[in-house]
């Protein structure tokens, strides 16, 4: 079973290049202003220009308006829109309007949260199961929180999916073995501090997938 990875929240050429060199299938550019991984349109444009055609550029958004999406898609040459906090109807509208592969992030803590994924079956192209961050947390993702992967046991996925939330070098192999994920997504697990990606951590994480 081949497993691919999205390295999310990249904001420097060095770490972006490490993700590409290491074989990431997707790279993520974060357009949520409160995030420590936020990239301006100008930076997104410079980073996107370094990404070869076989690597998909994913934009991360939290309930974005159309203007932000317009500008970010152009700047980041985005192939994929990753939505946090968007309702199924808004997700479907974005997918139709922008004609991009669209991922719905599902914030998971309980089986009921997971069941909520079904509402996106005709709205999105892929589900990103991510851990629900604590009430009052500054961000809806990117906080290194993981959910109980056993919740995925026997779940009938309504769409292709990816596993996210608190993954790192120490747990990604077990996560794949347990969930049978074929696409994993990591952000804080390849950082030395919030928003500071690390070339060696990115390289080691991607190497673990190839082993
Ligand atoms: O990373 C962020 O700052 C962020 C902000 C707003 C929404 C999502 C965000 N990150 C996404 O969260 C998941 C998991 O991150 P982690 O590996 O647990 O740190 C990942 O998909 C990021 O795209």
TrEMBL record:
Pfam families: PRAI
Sorted UniProt keywords: Amino-acid biosynthesis, Aromatic amino acid biosynthesis, Isomerase, Tryptophan biosynthesis
A biological process term (GO) from this entry: L-tryptophan biosynthetic process
GO molecular function, one term: phosphoribosylanthranilate isomerase activity
Gene3D superfamilies: Aldolase class I
Entry's family note: Belongs to the TrpF family.
Name of this protein: N-(5'-phosphoribosyl)anthranilate isomerase
Biological source species: Sphingomonas oligophenolica
């Amino acid at each position: 079973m081949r497993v691919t990875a999205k390295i999310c929240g990249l904001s420097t050429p060095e770490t972006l290049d490490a993700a590409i060199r290491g074989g990431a299938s997707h790279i993520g550019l974060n357009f949520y202003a409160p995030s420590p991984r936020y990239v301006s349109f100008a930076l997104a444009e410079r980073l996107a220009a370094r990404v070869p055609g076989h690597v998909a550029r994913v934009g991360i958004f939290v309930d974005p308006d159309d203007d932000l999406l317009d500008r970010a898609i152009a700047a980041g040459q985005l192939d994929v829109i990753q939505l946090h906090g968007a309702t199924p109807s808004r997700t479907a509208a974005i997918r139709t309007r922008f004609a991009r592969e669209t991922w719905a992030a599902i914030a998971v803590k309980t089986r009921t949260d997971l069941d909520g994924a079904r509402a996106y079956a005709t709205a999105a192209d892929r589900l990103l199961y991510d851990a629900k961050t604590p009430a009052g947390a500054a961000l809806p993702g990117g906080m290194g929180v993981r959910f109980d992967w056993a919740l995925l046991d026997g779940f009938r996925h309504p769409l292709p999916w990816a596993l996210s939330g608190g993954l790192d070098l120490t747990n990604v192999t077990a996560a794949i073995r347990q969930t049978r994920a074929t696409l994993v997504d990591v952000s804080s697990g390849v950082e030395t501090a919030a928003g500071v990606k690390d070339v060696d951590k990115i390289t080691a994480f991607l190497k673990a997938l190839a082993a």
